[in-house]
Structures are given as C-alpha cells and as structure tokens.
Amino acid sequence: MAVIGIDLGTTNSLAAVWQQGRSRLIPNALGDVLTPSAVSIDEDGTVLVGEAARQRLVSHPERSAAAFKRAMGTDQTYSLAGRTFTPEELSALVLRQLKQDAEAFLGEPVEEAVVSVPAYFNDRQRAATKRAGQLAGLRVERLVNEPSAAALSCYKPDEGEASFLVFDFGGGTLDVSVVECFDNVVNILAVSGDNALGGNDFDETIAHLFCVENGLDYRGLDRAAQAILLEQAEKCKQALTENPMAVMIVDSPGVKGALSLTGKKLVEHSQKLLERMRTPVARALLDSGLGRGELAGVIPVGGSCKMPLVRQYLAHLLGQRPKQNAQPDTVVALGAGMYAAMKARESNLRDMILTDICPFTLGTNIINRADPARDLMAPIIKRNSALPVSRVQRFCTVSEGQELVEIEVYQGEGMHCDENLKLGKLSVPVPPAKAGQESVDVRFTYDINGILEVEVRSVSTKETVSALLLGQGSGMTEEQARLRMQELADLKIPPRERAANRLLLARAQRLFAETTGPRHNAAVRVLLALDKAIAQQTPEMEMARLRRKIGSLLDDLERAGEEELSGFFADEPEDDLPEGWEGEED
388: which residues sit within 8 A by CB, 6+ positions away? Predict the structure, then answer.
C-alpha cells in the first residue's frame, strides 16, 4: 500500500507518490496538481474544497475560509454557514480531499502519509497537523520540515559536496534552512523562520495601499469587500512578476477605485516585511557557522519567491541571485514524496539519508533572583542541535528543607520561561537538606521522529521519573478522533465528476459578487444557465460542451473591460443563455 507525501500549504496543497523511480505529483479531479487550501460550505450543506471554495471566498465569505494554516495549534475557530471549525479540522478536509484524489489516481486505498510542516512550527502546531491527518483518516507518523523536503528534492548526488541556503517563502510562512549535501546525505545545519510572514502579507499591503489612495477604510469594509480587494491585490502582485508596472482596478458594490503600482513603489511600502525576512536569514547563517560567501547557491521555494522584489532582496542580502528553480510551487511536495518512499524503504532510496535538527531550544525553569516572579529558562538542548541528541544537566535545590523538585519543560528562545511554550512538568522527591545540598540530573533525549523524553533523577536516592512530552501523538484519544471524524464525514462531498461544474458555478458567483454593470449582468446570465443545466441533469457530453462555452465566456469576462462587454449578449435571448448554443461536437 502506497505511502504518499503531502505539502499542506497555506495557499495551495498537493500530494506526491514515488513511482517508477521518481516522485510524481498527484492530480486532483480537475487535472491540476495544486489544490487551493480553501474550504466552503454550499447552500445545500455540501463541502467544497479547492478551487471552487477559493472562488467562493468573494461571493460567500460567511461560508468560506482559507489561510487557516496560520492558526494551526491555536484556539482560533472559523464559522462557516453556522458551523464552527478549528484550523486542524479545516486542514483535515483539505487532507481528506488529497487522500481521495490519491486513491483515484493510484486505484488503491491510501492510509498513511508523510506531511510537511514549516521548520519553525512548534510542538503545538505539529500536534495540530497530526490531528488533522488523523481526522482525515490518515496515519501520520512522520512530519518532515518543508525546507528539508525541498533540499531533498533538489539535491543531485553527482554535483558533489556543497552547502545551500533554502529560502522557503509561501503564502503564509517563511522558513530558512542551511543544508550541507554530500555522499547521498542531506544534512540540515540550521533552521530559522517566521510562521506569520508570507505572500499574503504583501497582498494585504497592496490592499491597504489601494484603500489609502482611494479614500477607503480597509478595516471598515465588510468581509466580502475585503475578499474582493485581497483577490485583486494578489492579481496585481502576480502581474508585477512579469511586468514593470501593474494597475489594480476595482469596480464592485461599495469598493471602487484604481491603483497604479510599480516594483519600486511596492518595495517602498514593504520595508517592514523585508526587514522581517532579513532576521531569519541572518539567524540561520549565524547558527550554521557559514558565511554567505561559503554558500554554493540559494534555492528559492514557494510561490512567493516568484516575486521580483523577493529575489532582488535575497540577492542583496546574500550577494548572489537565487537559482532559477522551475518548480518553486511543487518542490516541497516532490521532496515529501521522496521522504515517504524513504520511510517505506524503497530500494533505490535506501542509501539516501536526510538528517534533521531541533528547531527550538528546549530547557527547564530556574530561579530568577533578580525577579523571583519570572523564572529564567536554562537551555538543555539548544536549537539546531543535530538529531538524535541526548543532553543532561544537574540542578540543585534552592530552599532550606526542600522535599520536592519540580522541573517544568519549555520550548523557545525567550530568556524568561513565560516567553516560551510550556510542554509539561515533572516532579521528583528529594530528602530535606540545606539549600544546594540535594540535586537532580535532568536528561532530555530528542529523536529523529520528534519525540522528546524527559528524565529527572535524584542524585542521592536514585529515584527517577520520566515522561514523553513531544511528538508522542496528535493529542486526541482514539474515541475523540472517531467521533469528530464521523461528524466531518457526515458533511456531504460532491462527486469528483461534478468538480468542474462546481468550479464554473463558483467562478460565476465570484464575478456576480465583485462586478457591476454589463459584467454583473453577464454573470447573472451564466448563473441562470448553469443552474438550469445542473437542475435538468444535462447529459455529460452536452454538459462538457456547455462547460467549454461557459468557461471561455468567463475567461472573456475576467479579461474584458466594461466597454468591450456593452454589447456582448446583444444577439442572445435575455431569459435563457443556452438556447442557440450549438457548441462543437466531441
């Protein structure tokens, strides 16, 4: 039974499988390998995942959600059509869709996956990712860091020994890794990142700039208007990838105006974002012990790396231009597919080794004599330590007659414990004595599977307590997972063969919501035609011809200006769009 690799992204998600000696991307029902990480609940209760759901972010914002990866591991919830979802439950719906696409592609059940996560995800976020897999009906024993997967995919053993910086900049997160490659080994030297920085932040910058120049208050707009602005801002950003200037024009109910944007202007208004990009790059290089002149290359990963200003800024920081990576959107999934094959012990990958490191410092609390109310964190395993790793430190009692030593375990880089993530607490009894006379040995053991074992041993009595505090599972009992899986399974999912119809309907609904005038009227006509064809259960051959016609029409509507559309339907009957459409023969 195949083990697949999954890149669960903020903007798009995709899956890969090892076949015929290489990692292959798995297409979805529409034939695309990129599935937008968006979920929407249709009016009849059907769950839409992917491109149709992304289109409905504009037309049905109260029923749709995206970018929920940024909230993984938090208490944030999303309300869709009156139902409440956690970020991991929405992610589970995306994973379930990828699982079904993989089963259709492979012709066999898929029960296990390796899922990629940002290298800088903490334990809470990683546990949430595993919960999402469990709720999707997948066994996720192994998570792989996204830049590690990218490095694995890009490494070519015949190129010899070299060190690279992997700059993984997606829609919602930034990961930076320094990797050393030699003799079929991909060795991760250091990682850093920002889990709240991505291409979406540039979209928001453009949307806010549009509002400033057109006298609008972005925060005062409703969700539908904000969604329209963000969608148009993303298109403007993408246009700047190929052109020196782009124009953002919005003519929607309540939101009208234009913005002329150049790369230089975007740079001027993105200084804070660029500064945030600089910090993890500098930290990763510093932790790796390499200077920028020792890098053989810079590997850009993620769709946001296509932005010219990002590539130019990287060239400025590192003194060399990023490599022209032909697959920035898919390289992580391809690497995850390779890693899944390595886990399954595929014969032609048995010699490959991918090392990993501890992304955060792990430590325990000690007394802060300058401010007793705020304990300090004493590092035991420092960030970027190679895995597996085991470290032990001795700590003494701090008060007269102390009979119990409590060891709190933290993850993070803050000096004070309250600045870090608390993972748990262990207690061990000690004989009462003068302060400092009794002591305990605290050992942290962190393995390649991300499992942290903490052992506390009294030096005088030899009494020992231990616990697993990281990576031991998804945080859900089997019964909890079973009940929630059943609730999610009760949500209706459209058959794969209807995906194309749903997408056209969602596109037309989006145009209806974001346009006025002739384009708005045209969208109404398309919606009526689609509704009628679907309600009448039009035969598939005829429906395919209608989809081609309507798809072409929607393309024209999205490209054309209002002047070009003024007489677009002059020869068509007003009440029934399909009449007179002969269509070409199949």
Answer: 445, 446, 447, 448
User: Strands 297-301 and 162-169, how do they pair?
Assistant: parallel
- Cβ-contact 115, 6 below 8 angstroms: yes
Query: Within 10 A of 211 (CB to CB), how many other CB atoms are there?
Result: 21
Look at strands 255-262 and 362-366 and give their pairing.
unpaired
Q: φ, ψ for residue 170 (rounded to 5)?
A: -100, -155
Task: Please name which of 286, 272, 37 lies closest in space to residue 176, comparing C-alpha atoms.
Answer: 286
What's the one-letter identity of residue 5? Answer: G
Question: Percentage helix, strand, coil, to 5, in the chain?
Answer: 40, 25, 35
pLDDT digits 0-9 by tens, 42-100: 988 889 999 999 999 988 999 999 999 999 999 899 999 989 999 999 999 999 999 99
Strand order in the sheet with 452-458: 389-396, 439-446, 452-458, 464-470
Sort strands 421-429 and 404-411 into parallel, antiparallel or unpaired.
antiparallel
Helix (H) or strand (E) run with residue 456 in it: strand 452-458
Is the separation of the CB atoms in 17 and 104 below 8 Å? no
Number of H helices, E strands in the chain: 15, 26
Tokens of 299: 């590997």
By DSSP bridging, strand 22-25 and strand 35-36 are: unpaired
> Exposed e or buried b for every residue in 218-239, given b needs 16+ CB within 10 A?
beebeebbbbbbbbbbbebbbe
Residues 410 and 424: their CA atoms lie apart, in Å, by 8
Alpha carbon 533 to chain centroid distance? 36
Maximum Cα–Cα distance for the chain, whole Å? 97
CA atoms of 293 and 307, how far apart (whole Å): 24
Nearest to 99 by CA among 492, 506, 496, 501: 496
Query: Alpha-carbon distance 420 to 416, whole Å?
Result: 7
The token duo for 131 is: 């919960």
**Between vectors from CA 487 to CA 486 and to CA 493, what angle results, nearest 5°?**
90
585/563 Cα distance (integer angstroms): 32
Phi, psi of 416 (to 5 degrees): -95, 150
Integer Cα distance of 424 and 454 in angstroms? 10
Tokens of 287: 């932790």
Q: Count Cα atoms within 13 angstroms, Cβ side, for 565.
A: 19
**448-497 pLDDT, tens per residue?**
767 789 999 999 999 999 988 765 555 566 666 667 666 766 666 666 66
